[in-house]
Amino acid sequence: METDLRLESSLWVGNKRYRAVLTGWHFNWTEVDKKNRDKKTISVPVAEVVGVEEGRVEILPQKSVEDTDKDFTVFYVKRFSSGGSYGLLWRLGRTQFSCPSRALRDQWTKHLRTALKTHSPLRPHRLLVFINPFGGKKKGRKIYHSVVAPLFELAGISSHVIVTERANQARDHLLKKDLAGFDGVVCVGGDGMFSELLHGLIGRTQQEAGLCENDPAVTLQPCPLHIGIIPAGSTDCVCYATVGVIDPVTSALHIIIGDSQPLDVCSVHQASSLVHYSVSLLGYGFYGDVLAESEKHRWMGPLRYDYSGTMVYLSNRSYAGIVHYLPADPQDSSPRDRTRCLSGCSVCSRSTERLFHQSSDSGSLYSSHNSQYTSDSEGEWVTVEGRFRCVSLTCMSSSCPKSPLGLSPSAHLADGTGDLILVWDTHPLGFLKFLYRHTSTQDQFDLPFVEVHRVKAVRFSLPSGKEEEGYEDMGATSSAIDDEERGYIETVSRNGSQQYLAERGTERRTTNEQKAATPILCGLCCSKAPAVSVWNCDGEILPNTEIDCRIHGQLVRLYARGIEDRAAVHNCSEEHDNKCERIF
Ligand SMILES: CCCCCCCCCCCCC/C=C/[C@@H](O)[C@H](COP(=O)(O)O)NC(=O)CCCCCCCCCCCCCCC
Ligand SMILES: Nc1ncnc2c1ncn2[C@@H]1O[C@H](COP(=O)(O)OP(=O)(O)O)[C@@H](O)[C@H]1O
Ligand SMILES: [Ca+2]
DAGKc domain: from which residue to which, for each copy (predicted)? Predict the structure, then answer.
């Protein structure tokens, strides 16, 4: 196969002569000077060729074809560093080649197209696209038609576009309508739109496989259709964490070349019913309150989260809860190992082996017929109880423009685990420090009131009687109540490391800093606070407080490849300057 596709000849680009070689995996062209010495080589992996067209082709301002019979044009992925973001921006590169004869031109286009088919088996031919016209800054339609559609057309992708008229339309369509002939589903919107696709596709796949989604112990069937995300929302966390930038052109190019990134999904259950699926943030306390508050201010657009975040921070709340968790194998990885899950991540690759090649033996995460989660290999559940500022579970880093390294910077996209972050009640300045560290590279887990655990499952319940209590006096959660009630913090040195203990029968102490800070901020807030918060599940408020969650390894696949390591990518051009270069 490799030798069949090989082609080598002299070609011209403008008035310069090049030696072009197609090896099967790569298409290279090297400038040759008058003395036949090689100069600079441009090398494009065949998998990153977007399209090959006869003639001299442009696509902006409109598609134009000068149909000369000795020329062909190759479109391909070109990388740029992206300033603020961690990942790389992808743009459409274009080179027009001239051949000495028409026969050679036809040979080049035929070979390149065959190589494309051979080396990019997952390239979509037909896509189902849902646009949320109201997501983010309400630019979904414009982004799709001006930026994405021309690229899909160039790549020969046909798409069926649905502009949604109501919430959950995309989900319902995926659950009920005929999906035959589609290779993938794309949303143009934010995390909420992605969540609709996630629910629709997972639900449809389980229906067709005859599996019950309600039972947390059932091993769910991975979805056959890929999901593409064109970011046009408010947080765009799933896009940022799987691509590394929020950029519609970059995302469209990942879709076109058929990149494939598996993703862990957390199922959330209550009383033996499925409540929701989550991939990014499942958060109780602070993040739940921020979402509940922000729904009242949707008109503010993406800014609603900053406004609500500030208001909720000032209200200075903490909540009682009991958290049970099932730790993952600490030998595989740790949330404190300071590694990052990047494109081609070895921890995720090892998990693929474990999840799909050993699933028939007793080493699987759960035994599929075991509704009480008691397989021998699952390990021991751990229980902690106390007052928390927030309890968060995330299946991936959940990086987003607000927090470029995310809620858990060392979490993995596809390792079959999630990171459980427990932020115990603490003084307002301590909590602010924790929040603020999300905006920099400082370790947000290196604080005495924060714990992080890599887990396979989590249960959350309320201390008996809490659900009925409703509201409690704010003073009670901040200054009036004694330290014993509040579960305030204490750091002790155990085995040489700082460990945090709260409400575990150990002595408790309030620091001076805590005592000083609390009353000042309490003066700014309301006098009544609810005793119970809500769960924020990828931007949706859950109806239940007591939940049971399980991580399903690699349940869905996105058209993405994870964040590319800048240091390992060679063909990256200088920083992209939007002012002087057009998109195409
Ligand atoms: C002091 C600065 C603090 C910055 C803290 C940033 C933490 C950000 C972590 C964000 C994790 C995001 C996980 C993704 C969630 C989304 O699924 C979900 C839905 O997104 P969609 O609307 O696009 O559909 N988004 C959300 O739920 C939004 C959560 C955002 C929380 C941001 C909170 C901002 C807090 C600002 C606090 C300021 C305190 C200042 C005190 C003087
Ligand atoms: N046509 C529509 N009208 C109202 N709501 C919609 C529509 N289409 C989608 N939605 C809902 O809007 C919510 C937010 O959408 P999303 O695209 O995530 O934007 P944002 O990031 O700004 O929240 C989603 O939960 C989705 O279900
Ligand atoms: Ca994970």
Answer: 122-272
Give domain status of residue 199, yes or no.
yes
Supply the pLDDT for residue 58: 85
Same domain, 57 and 25: yes
Q: Tell me if 371 is assigned to some domain.
A: no
Q: Whose CA is nearest to atom 38 of ligand 1?
A: 310
Residues 241 and 229 in one domain: yes
In 3D space, the residue among 357, 367, 184 whose CA is nearest the CA of residue 258 turns out to be 184
How far from 243 is each of 85, 142, 393, 422, 558, CA to CA, in Å? 10, 21, 21, 27, 10
Report yes or no on 455 lying in a domain: no
| pTM summary value | 0.86
* Strand 126-131 with 158-163, pairing: parallel
Ligand 1 shell residues, CB under 6 Å? 190-192, 233-237, 280-281, 287, 290-291, 305-306, 309-310, 313, 398, 400, 402-403, 407, 432, 435-436, 438-439, 536, 538-539
- Give pLDDT tens digits for 185-197: 999 999 999 999 9
For residues 183-200, one letter each, b for 16 or more C-beta atoms within 10 angstroms of the residue's C-beta and e for the rest, the string is bbbbbbbbbbbbbbbbbb
Q: What is the pLDDT of residue 467?
A: 58
Chain-centroid distance of CA 210 in Å reads: 28
Q: Are residues 103 and 45 in the same domain?
A: yes
CA–CA separation, 239 vs 262, rounded Å? 13
Check whether residue 136 and residue 8 sit in a common domain: no
pLDDT value for 488: 32
- CATH number of 35's domain: 2.30.29.30
Helix (H, G, I), strand (E, B) or coil at 186: strand
Distance CA 306, CA 288 (A): 14
Strand blocks (E) in 23-155: 26-32, 38-45, 49-54, 56-58, 64-66, 71-81, 88-98, 126-131
| Residues of the chain scoring pLDDT < 70 | 1-4, 36, 61, 358-377, 466-529, 568-584
Q: What is the pLDDT of residue 238?
A: 96
* Domain hosting residue 65, numbered range: 2-121
Indicate the residue among 76, 93, 121 that finishes a domain.
Answer: 121
Q: Do 236 and 126 belong to one domain?
A: yes
Boundary of a domain, candidates 64, 90, 121:
121
Give the pairing type, strands 450-461 and 319-327.
antiparallel
Question: pLDDT value at position 87?
Answer: 87
Nearest CA to ligand 1 atom 19: 539
pLDDT at 530: 77
Residue for token pair 């790569």: 26
